Amino acid sequence: MTLDQIIDATSVMPVMVVDRPEDAVPLARALVEGGIRVLEITLRTAAGLDAVKAIRRDVPDAIVGVGTIATPAQLEASIAAGAQFGVSPGTTPTLLKAIVDSKLPFFPGVATTTEVMQVLEGGLTVMKFFPAVAAGGVKMLESFRGPFPQVRFCPTGGINAQNAPDFFKLPNVVCVGGSWLTPKDRVAAGNWADITRLAKEAAALKP
Ligand SMILES: O=C(O)C(=O)C[C@H](O)[C@H](O)COP(=O)(O)O
């Protein structure tokens, strides 16, 4: 899959923190049922890569990416687990080189103009803007448009159903990411119906 195909399939990208491996497949199914197919599984928990493998195997309609990739070794492990794309919170020169070499569709994280320029040096023009609200939110992305009209962003961090529409109004926003679709208490309780409801609401946010 190409990065553009992934972008076309997404509007809100759920940032999933999977604590219990057995939650991965039902959680992914609940999101897909609600119309959210492009999923980011973070490496914040030990279960992350096993969750990717399980969802790739059992939820064929999902498009599965790995988030929180911070090192080339994590990138390699993500590809081995079946990641269809990657996401990082920030971008070091070492990680950028590994991303470019791997050819894996990727949303490298940036929060400043210098970081945007460093990622552009690697030839990548789609970036995760993180932490979106704390780093300047809508105003910052509007300001990025002047010097970087070719760059498209997936803002993540502090975004929810209330403020997401403000981001979708920006021409340089292709999707938004967030953890609000997968509240910890709902996942812990196995309340998949509620997750499907949140996914349906989120899927309707992008005009
Ligand atoms: O773990 C990662 O890979 C990250 O980069 C951070 C997440 O994308 C944000 O923490 C999600 O933000 P919230 O929606 O505000 O919870």
How would you describe this structure to a colleague?
By secondary structure, the chain is of the alpha/beta class. It has a single domain (3-203), classed as Alpha-Beta Barrel (TIM Barrel). The chain is 43% helix and 16% strand. The chain is built from 10 helices and 9 strands. The protein has helices spanning 3-9, 24-33, 48-58, 72-81, 93-102, 113-121, 137-145, 164-168, 184-188, 192-203, and strands at residues 12-16, 38-42, 63-67, 85-87, 106-107, 109-110, 126-129, 152-155, 176-178. It has a 6-stranded parallel beta sheet with strand order 5-4-3-2-1-9, sandwiched between helices. A 3-stranded parallel beta sheet has the order 6-7-8. Helix 2 packs across helix 10 (192-203). The longest helix is centred in the last third of the chain and has 12 residues, at 192-203. It is globular. It starts with a helix and ends with a helix. The model has no long low-confidence stretch (mean pLDDT 97). The structure holds 2-keto 3 deoxy 6 phospho gluconate (ELE). GO terms for molecular function: 2-dehydro-3-deoxy-phosphogluconate aldolase activity. Pathway: Carbohydrate acid metabolism; 2-dehydro-3-deoxy-D-gluconate degradation; D-glyceraldehyde 3-phosphate and pyruvate from 2-dehydro-3-deoxy-D-gluconate: step 2/2. Its EC number is 4.1.2.14. InterPro entries: Aldlse_KDPG_KHG, Aldolase_TIM, KDPG/KHG_AS_1, KDPG/KHG_AS_2. It catalyses: 2-dehydro-3-deoxy-6-phospho-D-gluconate = D-glyceraldehyde 3-phosphate + pyruvate.
